Amino acid sequence: MEAGEQRAEQARVDQVEREIKRQVATAEQAVDEAHQETRAVEKNYSENASINRYEVDDIAESRSELEQQRRLVSQAAENENIINHQLRTLQNLQGSPYFGRIDILDPGEDEPERLYIGTASLMNSDRTDFLIYDWRAPISGVYYNGTLGKVQYETPAGTQSTELVKKRQFTIKDGRITNMFDTNETVGDELLQAALGAQNDQYMHNIVATIQQEQNNIIRNTSSDLLLVQGVAGSGKTSAILQRITYLLYHSRADLNADQIVLFSPNNLFSHYISEVLPSLGERNMRQVTLAGFLRRRFEGLQVETLFDRYEERQSEATAAHAAADFLESATVMTAVRQYVHQLPADEVQFANLTFNSQVFFSADHIRELYQGLPASLSVADRLVKLKNQLIRELQHRVREEAKKDWVAKALDELDVQQLHRLYGQRSVDDFPDEEAQFAYLARKLAKRRLRVVADAIYNNYFIDFYNQYERFLRQVALPQTISNRDWIGVITDYQNEIEYHRIKLMHTAPLLYLRDLITGSGQNRAFQYVFIDEMQDYPLATLVYLRHAFPKAKFTVLGDSEQALFKPLQLPQAMLQELRTVLDAKHPQLIVLNRSYRSTTEITDFAKALLPDGDQIISFTRHGAKPRLLVRYDDAGFKQALLENAVQQRADHESVAVLTKNREQAQTIYRFLHQHQLDGLHLLTARDSDLPTGILVLPVYLAKGLEFDAVIAADVSAANLTNVDAVGMVYTMATRAMHQLTLLSKGAVTPAINSAASQQLVIEHEFADKK
Ligand SMILES: Nc1ncnc2c1ncn2[C@@H]1O[C@H](COP(=O)(O)OP(=O)(O)OP(=O)(O)O)[C@@H](O)[C@H]1O
């Protein structure tokens, strides 16, 4: 490119940088002012709120004044938030204001228009012109999708046409253009190379400057209610959905906010790993939850087995147990639940006593009688609503009776002045004709307050024993032939025992929750508009059916890589789409397949793809590094020595080195061993951890899902250690976590999962004990 051209572009960058600086200064001042305003109204509010309300003559008036002040506080805080957000967005632009330029010639125009594209929009000082267009603006779609010539792009007003006459890409660092070129492709590999080589911390980066065309299709898809993304490891699935979230938030600002989006992420570490992406784009984070967290909230009081616990257990379980789990995790079992609830006879409902002060308040028999008195033509859920209303009416009656009892008079006597005032609520002494009326009022209020626990219990459906109900379901469900009656009895007994100890296995969670929700007609959240599920290959179908039920209004974006399935056999994307389409009841499903892998060097990807029977479809990105190494040691001491040497060596070269193991126990053993040698920055990561430090991290492979590290040491890939059918998925997942360097360690003969084609991609080193 001509030097003059670069000078002209640099001059523009300088001008834009000056404008950003000016706007940052204005925004900083506005932030200060807004902050002071918030402090002032807060101070006013807290001073007034702390006045003892009972000393104020007119309580009602003081309340409404306080309410008004509270509103002022929240308005001021909201205003401060908005200005802060604007400041952050401007600061993010500083130093690297844009990365692309498109010149477009609209129909009927003589001169092309020049548009610059960055992470956010920026207007000039008199707000007449865009200096930068947000990458999510409709016209920016042309940058990612279009090659030169006639192009179309989507806008809220419909499809528009234009002509793309130039596409230019920039790398701008600290306000200097370090690289710029014109291109006809989506985003040049050169830029991508630079971006991938520059990952230098433990956080995921936003990929906005280098989004690839097929990723762009994921990001800008607004028409599908089920978007299934099947992508090989490191193909940018997670990156693409994070960009998609910011895109959706940008486009539906008026009717979508971050609280209406939920991302199911594979583990707590992952949340930390991606936490920087959205803020770097000026967006608030969506809600994030792990499956374990979601279930924990729905099973309060029970300890729910996690995916990881299940995985650990499955390694040691007999195959008979697998058949039962497979059934309980299938969509079939969910259909059976639906049918069971639909036909649930009144005498089959497992009612429970409602108690108050350890005494039966409403007996199960009484509740059943009420239920049986309701029209059988109603659905179970509708009948329950009516039953609850009846119970509430009875409770009100009981409150009146209870108010006459001695315990109430006694409790009233014991109240201090403040408590008494609170009991009066809106009323005052003068509102009552005589003392008797006053006492009756207070007694009723007190009784009502004490009996609120019963009201809550009614409201929360505590009068049905769902654990028993589910057991009844299990006892009558039609079993597939793969499960013998004897094994099934074992499953039920195990379930009962677990409940006894306040625990529940993961395989029971979806059918049990579904059963509970269908009976009570609850558990659905209609506010959520988008549900994202990452690493979907680890989600049982039954769980997906349940999530569809729990978020009935949401569009689903489901991402996965069946090759990384640590828990189940491989499935083809098309078959998966069909299956999901049914279970998620989707009207406009779409499948997008990503075959290009960006994370790892060509050498690592070539090894990983050779592991898979259909690995040919994986396209490695051309970024070269050292060949992966396989070190085979035939005794424990040699193995440990190799591990230690490698960990130290890799750490000298890299920020993050992960030692990945098959399970928790092996991670602990390795950690203890390395710990004895006092390695710098050594960490053992567990399912509870949510911080992802740099250094040498020892963790089981399932906790590394979705993450990436500069260097990976896979320990141990011996045949003795990796015997299961899922050994291939395991080695594949371990290998594809590495960005730059991969070392495999084997104690003894190597697992057959590393076949001869894969072995050819390795530098192999054997060392026998007697050689040393
Ligand atoms: N268009 C892109 N531009 C720059 N970097 C990219 C791009 N796409 C992906 N990457 C990088 O490739 C790496 C892998 O991306 P990501 O984690 O999104 O892949 P994934 O498909 O979710 O992987 P996995 O399934 O293995 O967890 C990340 O470092 C990401 O920043």
UniProtKB/TrEMBL annotation:
SUPFAM superfamilies: P-loop containing nucleoside triphosphate hydrolases (SSF52540). GO terms for biological process: recombinational repair. The keyword Cell wall biogenesis/degradation does not apply. ATP binds at G231, V232, A233, G234, S235, G236, K237, T238. Residues 210-601 form the UvrD-like helicase ATP-binding domain. Keywords: ATP-binding, Coiled coil, Helicase, Hydrolase, Nucleotide-binding. Pfam families: UvrD-helicase, UvrD_C_2. One of its GO terms (molecular function) is hydrolase activity. Residues 13-79 form a coiled coil. GO terms for cellular component: cytosol. InterPro entries: DNA_helicase_UvrD/REP, HelD_bacillota, P-loop_NTPase, UvrD-like_ATP-bd, UvrD-like_helicase_C. This is ATP-dependent DNA helicase. It comes from Limosilactobacillus antri DSM 16041. The lineage of its organism: Bacteria, Bacillati, Bacillota, Bacilli, Lactobacillales.
